[in-house]
Amino acid sequence: MSKTLFDKVWDSHVVRSLEDGPDVLFIDRHLVHEVTSPVAFQGIKQRNATVLFPARTFATADHNTPTINQHLPVEDPLSANQLKALEENANSYGISHWGLGHEKNGIVHVVGPEYGITQPGATIVCGDSHTSTHGAFGAIAFGIGTSEVEMVLATQCIMQPKAKKMRINIKGELSFGVTPKDVALYIISRLTTSGATGYFVEYAGEVFEKMSMEGRMTVCNLSIEMGARGGMIAPDEKTFEYIKGREFTPKGAAWDKAMEYWKTLKTDDDAVFDKEFNFDAADIEPMITYGTNPGMGIGISKNIPNAADISGGASTYQKSLGYMDFHEGEEMIGKPVDYVFIGSCTNGRIEDFRAFASIVKGRKKADHVTAWLVPGSHKVESAIKEEGILQILEDAGFELREPGCSACLAMNDDKVPAGKYAVSTSNRNFEGRQGPGSRTLLASPYSAAAAAVTGKVTDPRDFLKNNN
Amino acid sequence: MAYDKFIVLKSSAVPMPIENVDTDQIIPARFLKATERKGFGDNLFRDWRYNPDNTPKKDFVLNNDTYSGKILVGGKNFGSGSSREHAAWAVYDYGFRCVISSFFADIFRNNCLNVGVLPVQVSAGFLDSIYTEIEKDPNTQIEVNLPEEKVTILSTGESEKFDINGYKKENMLNGFDDIDYLSSMKSEIEQFAATLPF
Hints:
The complex is a heterodimer.
Chain A: H1 5-11, E1 14-17, E2 23-26, E3 29-32, H2 38-46, E4 57-60, H3 77-93, E5 96-98, H4 108-114, E6 123-126, E7 140-143, H5 146-155, E8 157-160, E9 164-171, H6 180-191, E10 199-204, H7 206-210, H8 213-221, E11 230-232, H9 237-243, H10 252-262, E12 275-280, E13 287-289, E14 297-299, H11 314-324, E15 339-342, H12 344-347, H13 350-360, E16 370-373, H14 378-386, H15 389-395, E17 421-424, E18 439-442, H16 445-454, H17 460-467
Parallel strand pairs in A: 3-4, 3-6, 4-5, 6-7, 9-10, 9-12, 10-11, 15-16, 15-17, 17-18
Antiparallel strand pairs in A: 1-2, 2-8, 13-14
Helix pairs in contact in A: 2-5, 6-8, 13-16
Chain B: E1 8-11, E2 13-16, H1 23-26, H2 46-49, E3 71-74, H3 86-94, E4 98-101, H4 106-115, E5 118-121, H5 124-136, E6 142-145, E7 150-153, E8 159-161, H6 166-174, H7 178-183, H8 186-194
Parallel strand pairs in B: 2-3, 3-4, 4-5
Antiparallel strand pairs in B: 1-6, 6-7, 7-8
Helix pairs in contact in B: 3-4
């Protein structure tokens, strides 16, 4: 029977299928961070269990970590305690631990691919919903809860029913100034924040074929924001080229054998999806969100929709606009911006900083804007320095911080104050996400850079044109 | 972690007719710094429930004595966003054993089932009926019957069946969790692992 990419990877990992119940799914790679793991490790201890395959689990500290002065002790005692717990737990069970200050430290979904932990055809989980990022390599990757983290530690398996299958095809060529982030925000705006709930998504078509690996990661990362369990893209030469030679990828004969298998990882021509969407690249422009969920996005040159024109309840819509202090029909261009954040597992990779730098180069940060530039990992940080990007950023009045999740979820001190507006390259614009009372506008690194320079919502194409 | 068995729950309910309630609202990230599972109920819906000076917001439903009970009735797409199981812990720790909605986000639904909170998905029409009856009488009793997979508004007798897979149902009825099951098949898992390419 014909299979989709998702079928092929899922079915090959089913240890046992329960009648009228979930599948027992074997997990190849387990990523762990400090926030969603301590209670899982505690459970292991209480059950007198052990970690079945410690070499399949990798721990890094990211959610809670400060992004300045990482060489000093962490000031917040609760954060310090969580970081210590992760280190102790990892050490006592023989798990690799890339803690604060470690050269390989960074956001879990940035370092996984950087070191070749992420591979085609693998099942990858982490107690974090943006685990979907790794689907860019043709892996099945998704976020799990802490009970499931404990399951994976103890048995290397979880129990979940197989998701339904969706394919999203985008044909044609992206317009000038349109980035993978815009593609993702466009899809979510079309499907809504719950439009893919219950599905595992495969992205297909020319747009994704031409997209860089980093761009594919951005798109797959945001799959969860339309409710999908995860998103994936069939591996191709670009994928193999990206992972070849990385620390944890197979070498020599093992590589050749893996390649033989990986090349079979694509959806069969006559395979059937439960749902399919077709979009045209020409319809996508740089996107920005105006509300309090990632589905509330529009083309940056458009006006905020009227309640009557959107699906969903009017009272929820009004509550959302009320929180943002925006009104129906207003245009987004020109809205004042107080903070700019570039970083996160969505847009904290080197290409994102290259894009940001291409706009701020030779310009100056607006005086009233506070900008947080947070690389996704030390590897990204090094590349920023080596490529001369740091100099461009500093000349334009920006500072580079140290790696971590930072203002994406504001668990550390990087909090946007109440009532302030932030243009953010992260993934969620929920109420208070970037700090209690903060107001988030999600956008691409280009749009973040344009806002940082002008201090207001700005169409990045205006700057990009002048660059040419 | 073990939890209390869930068989039949009869209770009044707390209405929250807001769509897309995300897990950052259920429990904001700054309250995720604990290394033990306790006290999360205190911060359930923290920023909707309390002002920045920690005084209760009078107009929020959890601060309104008129409404109480072990059932939370939320709008469409309840629990979207982050995978933090802390959201489900907070719901449980506050005293809710059941969330009713017309649609749940996947990870939240799964987390609930793993910690002893029963997510009950009903039709949009039935959800409206619940809201209407609670508006008429805040003490409206709702019966959630897991063995029969049925939810009933007792004052009107209106009821609807809900879905849950047989395995999860058995777990909830007995207070079992998945690790009990998985641990029993360890040698099968080890044999399986030996056949994998990675």
